[in-house]
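Running co-folding for coenzyme A.
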Amino acid sequence: MSEDIAIKIQNLEKVFNPRSVAIVGASSEPAKVGYQILNNVVQNGYKGKIYPINRKATEILGLPCFPSLLEVPGDIDFAVIAVPAPLVEGVLKECVQKNVKGTVIITSGFSEIGKVKEEQVLKDIADKNNIALLGPNTFGFVYSPAKLNASFGPTEVLPGKIAFVSQSGALAISLMGWTMMEKIGLAAVVSLGNKVDIGEKELIEYFNDDPNVSVILIYMEGIKDGRKFMSTKIKKPVVILKSGSSQRGAQAAASHTGSLSGSDKIYSAVFNQLGMMRAKTFTQAFGAACTLSLPMPKGEDTLIITNGGGIGVSATDECEDFGIKLLEDPAWLEEKFRQTMPEFGSTKNPIDVTGGGGCESYRKAVRIALGEDKVKALVVLYCETAVTDPVQVAKAIVEEYIAAGRNKPLVVAMVGGERSRQAIQTFNESQIPAMTEVREAISGLKALYNWQEIVSRPKENVPVPAIPAKALEIIEAIRKEGRTFLLEHESRQVLEICGVPMPKWGFATTAEEAVKVAEAVQMYPIAMKIASVDIIHKSDVGGVILNIKNAEELKARFAQMMETVKRNAPKAELLGVNLCQMVDGLQCIVGMNKDPQFGPAVMFGLGGIFVEVLKDVSFRIVPFSETEAQRLVGEIKAKKLLDGYRGQGAHKESIIKTLMAIQKIAQHVKEVDINPLITNKDGSYAVDARIII
Ligand code: COA
């Protein structure tokens, strides 16, 4: 990490745990933002020194006022700036003079309305003086451990362990209200604003070492600096809610690598590669965040306890969907859980204590489940009935969970009306994640298992792979020629040097040479393609002939191709033909192109309809490790075909080898397309290759 960023992250301590706070633009008028911020700082119980800065007033909210930062007698750790845009630069310069190292600029009217230069001036001042600058155009932040509400948002936040970072101020404010209602505790709510300086990376890395935070939840619309974001170090679970899936992704033109990237899939790849978990809705995101504060499961066997068969079945479906393994041991379950239910109850997992099963049934069943090592994670479901009181059920379960020392993950779904809502709050207040939907509860549990997998990944420092000298030489020679693309045989040569597995191939300028090349390596049956800088669509001009079986046919076909192509493209200069062994197998597609945000991205998927119709492809950002390449291959939906289906199967080692090899030229070319890469049980072969520089 660059030293500058490290100092900024260190200086975030002055923002979140300042000994003194100045509010520049504090006002005595309650309708003004400056008043609201000061009021929030005072009302929330912040214990450090508070300095309102206002040119005219002598006192606001009972606190002595100062006309400027420079008039404040003591040191200032952190300044909130809420003055009109043209005055912000001057105030920031005063921060420099006063040695203030943390600021939040509330003021709007910068890059969001096109005033990029004005915003850059602020960034430059902050960088030169190591000031951690949040905003501009932010509603501020709340940090519960310091009882600091430096925002003009709601006054109240329930303290907890989730740090919520939001690119949208309005969403952050509204979700603060929602979390209060749901009784979900927050350690921090940070509105990022235009993030000219402090962004997601800095906050994640600051909260990584903050013992008051156990989970980081981020709402984002887009990343400003993709490469910086890629360098984020993850130590705690990060849940991302990202909106605005790209138009370009939707317009993606089938198998063309270039148009498939730059899309929302790239963001998914980035999150995946960094070990961040993506949520689809804010309830799912908060559900996951709450669940991620629970202890890690010590295995996979999950038990469901329910009072309703229907939601039990639906939870079973969800578990299967999310790949969560249910505990299966009918005899053991019967022995342990029969006592918790009437005779007509079910001891099969889900354990159904039946509709009449109230507080005591749940208490008994939960106590057994928490006490038995065999149960690794617990899902409790409840359907509201007239004969049971959900709040009492919730209280009983909370008591049991606390008595057991919160020893394993427990997630809850309560389906019902107002009383169930109250019961959910009872759970949330006790840091037990409870939802109104079964799917949300199970998806929270899945997030916990995901995090466990992320933590177990090897910590690899992956360097950008170097390009072999010979490959670079070929590329540079073509660049000098003024050409923007490599011919097929040149592409093959470069890729082969880098380690991409090739079928037997060769290049020839005459029929005799073609026969010689083919015989030397026993290439038959052969595909022959015309080589010309002037011809892009080879088959349209008769420049592709497949399945040539022997020398005689090869000679005849060569002559035929030359004649047809000359007739169809009289102006084209014909350089010769590419010869390539015909191979059978599963068609894959491998590509690389440059994402405007994140740089070179490598794509993998199955060819044909899988890429054209289903867009079943996945990406990784260069550089990535072999383990990541394996995860990339395992990520596509049609992965069963790769594992072997109806006799077909893939040679995964050589696919991984291709993905690793292609990274070597990523920094030196614009685009690579290996379409198809044919794979069978013996190996994989780049049957067609194209490089654009
Ligand atoms: N030093 C000290 N005090 C100063 C000052 C300075 N350099 N410059 C101005 N002030 C005082 C003003 O006199 C005023 O105090 P008063 O009410 O006692 O007169 C106070 O600071 C505020 O200045 P004012 O000119 O009244 O501005 P404002 O309150 O109308 O607007 C902002 C200031 C920052 C709120 C406004 O420019 C803005 O950006 N609003 C949008 C904020 C926003 O939505 N952010 C994004 C949320 S997601």
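Result summary
Residues 438-456 form the longest helix (19 residues).
The first strand starts at residue 20 and ends at 24.
Job closed.
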